[in-house]
Specification:
- By secondary structure, the chain is an alpha+beta fold.
- The protein has helices at 55-61, 73-79, 86-91, 174-193, 222-228, 236-255, 305-309, 316-331, 341-352, 357-362, 366-369, 393-397, 402-411, 422-427, 438-441, and strands at residues 9-10, 20-21, 108-109, 134-135, 139-148, 151-158, 163-170, 201-207, 210-215, 258-259, 268-270, 278-280, 287-288.
- The protein has two domains: 79-217, Phosphorylase Kinase, domain 1, CATH 3.30.200.20; 222-451, Transferase(Phosphotransferase) domain 1 (Transferase(Phosphotransferase), domain 1), CATH 1.10.510.10.
- The protein contains 15 helices and 13 strands.
- The strands form four sheets. The protein has a seven-stranded mixed beta sheet with strand order 1-8-9-7-6-5-4, covered by helices on one side. A two-stranded antiparallel sheet has the order 2-3.
- Helix 6 (236-255) runs antiparallel to helix 8 (316-331).
- Its EC number is 2.7.12.1.
């Protein structure tokens, strides 16, 4: 039902056949015999012949970067046989364009008897990655950015575009393979919309049974930004700009029936060279509206009530999470740092009051959190009594901005049907403030002074 990604897709290679790292020592059969025609070292004759190089030395001296690439796999087999391991000589024919062959001593040999993708994966089904090796005979592995349940993100040099990129290598399981294809479909749609505030996917390919997606390189995330300021509150003016861009990105997604499902500070990144421009990343948990795949979704501190209650979710969950990101940047800590979901619901009820009974009745998980009278069960870990509706957002945030509070409270409602949409959020007076014109800061280093906690307004 969904379209095919619009960025290039390489066909999956033949099943690889091991996993020992390339042995840097000479074979056990002994060192290569010295060439018999070697001239004495003190022979001054210009005709003195240099010692013949061993195959291993020749490999070490060969440049794995294809000059003026690409070349065909057939040409690679003819010109660079010493740089290819035996299994690669079979695998390479599945890749029509060859740019980079990988450094020989950084390669992994397959093992047909290894249960983890014949030795290319670890026991968590993540690809074994070695700096200097290649992905798909095009990308040179440079460093590991990070890892998670989805897989790994690595820094690579793309020898086709001559640019440094981030490549997401997704875990090699059936479930993650299916989710990876959904992510690719989502990114293809978002790419077509060319949103300024959504990370741009560059390429999509399958390599050694792993779905891989390459992205533009971005800067630090909003959690790291907050951390760099010792979690001091950022100025309302700067956070308003982040809010505008977040909701612009979400509006693009929601207009195309796409739900992010994991908005949090770590998934909002600054554009390099700027402290004002941001992009939403990590659509790996995303889904198409009306086609939710998982009941357990979103990071707990930013999890919407409908998700915890077991009610069908959609775009409103992103609106909820984005509002909590805004609040966190303005107070320097999460608003609802629950120890578990029951604790989370109690914290929400302190601010919003008790959830509507009709809403609770719709929840598939209501018996986990509510008694027979539809009251939240007591949390044994609580040391003090939590009273619904006892907290005031304006007091929590210590701000004197009624428009801001009005905006946030319209984003934070128990009932997702009464929550404002991302489109409506962009029209709210607090977000639409003419104080900051995004067009004036696009592509510039603007607002570093606004990040100071000394000026909140």
């Amino acid at each position: 039902m969904f379209g095919v990604p619009n960025f290039p897709v390489q066909p999956p290679p033949n099943p690889p056949t091991s996993s020992r790292r390339y042995d840097r020592e000479e074979p056990t059969s002994g060192r290569p015999r010295p060439p018999s025609y070697a001239a004495p070292r003190n022979d001054p004759s210009p005709r003195a012949r240099r010692p013949a190089q061993s195959a291993r030395t020749q490999r070490a001296n060969m440049n794995p970067v294809i000059p003026n690439g690409p070349i065909s796999p057939q040409t690679a087999l003819q010109k660079y046989p010493l740089l290819l391991l035996p299994f690669e000589k079979k695998e390479i024919v599945n890749f029509p364009e060859i740019y980079f062959l990988g450094k020989q001593h950084h390669k992994i040999e397959p093992d047909p008897e290894n249960q983890y993708n014949q030795g290319f994966d670890d026991d968590s089904h993540n690809m074994l990655l070695v700096v200097g090796n290649h992905l798909a005979y095009r990308f040179e592995i440079m460093a590991l950015f990070g890892a998670g349940a989805f897989g790994q993100v690595i820094r690579c040099f793309d020898h086709k575009t001559k640019k440094t990129v981030a490549v997401k290598v997704i875990v090699n399981t059936e479930q993650m393979h299916e989710q990876g294809l959904i992510e690719a479909q989502i990114l293809a749609i978002l790419n077509k919309n060319n949103s300024r505030h959504i990370v741009q996917a560059r390429d999509f390919f399958i390599f050694r049974s792993h779905i891989c997606i390459s992205f533009e390189i971005l800067g630090m995330n909003l959690f790291e930004l907050s951390e760099s300021y010792d979690y001091k509150p950022l100025s309302i003016r700067s956070v308003r700009l982040y809010a505008l861009q977040m909701y612009e990105g979400l509006e693009t997604a929601h207009r195309n029936a796409i739900v992010h499902c994991d908005i949090k500070p770590e998934n909002v990144l600054l554009v390099p060279g700027s402290q004002s421009l941001i992009k939403v990343i990590d659509w790996g948990s995303g889904c198409f509206a009306g086609h939710q795949k998982y009941e357990y979704i979103q990071s707990r501190f930013y999890r919407a009530p409908e998700v915890m209650l077991g009610i069908d979710y959609g775009p409103p969950m992103d609106v909820w999470s984005a509002a909590l990101v805004i609040i966190e940047l303005l107070i320097g800590r999460p608003l609802f740092p629950g120890d578990d979901e029951l604790d989370e619901l109690h914290m929400i009820s302190e601010l919003l009051g008790e959830p509507p009974i009709e809403l609770v009745k719709k929840g598939k998980r209501r018996d986990e959190f509510f008694d027979e009278n539809f009251k939240l069960k007591e949390n044994a870990a609580d040391r003090v009594e939590r009273k619904p509706g006892s907290m005031c957002l304006k007091e929590i945030m210590n701000v004197n901005d009624d428009l801001l509070i009005d905006f946030l409270m319209k984003c934070l409602t128990w009932d997702q049907t009464k929550r404002i949409t991302s489109s409506q959020a962009l029209q709210h007076p607090w977000v639409k403030s003419k104080e900051i014109n995004l067009a004036n800061v696009q592509g510039s280093r603007y607002l570093p002074r606004l990040l100071s906690a000394k000026s909140r307004y």
